[in-house]
Amino acid sequence: GLGDVYKRQNHDGTSTYTKVDALTQKRELLCTNASGENGQLLPGERWMLINKTTEGPRKDRDVYQIVEPDDRIDGWRNRNNVMLLDMQTGQLRTITEGQHNTWGAMSPDQKSMLLFIAENDITRRPFTFHTAVVLNLETMQADTLFTRDGFAGMGKWSPDGKSIVFTGSPE
Fold first, then answer.
1. Which of 39, 70, 114, 121 has its CA 20 to 30 A from that of 89?
2. Full strand arrangement of the beta sheet holding 101-106
3. pLDDT tens for residues 29-81?
4. What is the bridge-based pairing of β-strands 47-54 and 79-86?
5. Which of 59, 61, 105 lies closest to 82, judged by CA?
6. Chain centroid to CA 42: how far?
7. How many other C-beta atoms lie within 10 A of the C-beta of residue 131?
8. pLDDT score for 70
9. CA dihedral of 58, 61, 65, 70, whole degrees rounded to 10
């Protein structure tokens, strides 16, 4: 199995990922000097899916602006972006970057990634809208499954990689 992977934040701002076998307590260094945050080691142990928090635009002390009611909460402007860490080389590959929260789910064959993008719009109910895109990691070609759907939830690949199931909510 994959075992448990632990991340240690080093004093210089880098991260070290170590795999620990629960039965034998054997430790294996997977990667050092990675700048990723929270990661999920993927089957085959070649890639780690990283969810990286990107700091949002800072508030201007001279101008009091509230973009939407949640903007009063510290950190609300921060966004989640998706990266892939190559565990063999330590190279970090940026998949998404920007001011929309994005999450990723790797296909079972690890050739495609489902990207789930959230956008807020306080002028329309249900206020948060989702777009789902399948990104071919070899060609970087994107196939949009749906755009700005207010009632679709996160998706998950089927074990054979031929289908994606999404959660949803009724109106």
1. 114
2. 101-106, 112-120, 128-136, 142-149
3. 777 655 556 677 787 777 888 877 777 666 677 776 666 666 666 766 677 88
4. antiparallel
5. 105
6. 13
7. 18
8. 66
9. 60
CA 34 – CA 42 distance, rounded (Å): 16
Spatial distance between the Cα atoms of 30 and 41, rounded to a whole number of angstroms: 10
List, for residues 84-95, the tens digit of each pLDDT value: 888 777 778 889
- pLDDT, one tens digit per residue, over 120-169 is 888 888 888 999 999 999 999 999 999 999 999 889 999 999 999 999 98
Residue type for position 36: G
State how far the Cα of 138 lies from the Cα of 39, in Å rounded to an integer: 21
**Contact assessment for residue 103 and residue 80, using Cβ atoms and an 8 Å cutoff:** yes
pLDDT of residue 139: 94
Q: Which among 43, 48, 42 is positioned nearest to 16, based on CA atoms?
A: 48
CA 99 to chain centroid, in Å, comes to 13
Kind plus residue range of the DSSP H or E element containing 92: strand 92-94
CA dihedral 68, 167, 5, 43 (to 10 degrees): -130
Cα separation of 17 and 13, whole Å?
13
Residue type, 21: D
Dihedral (Cα; 166, 144, 117, 99), 10-degree rounding: 180
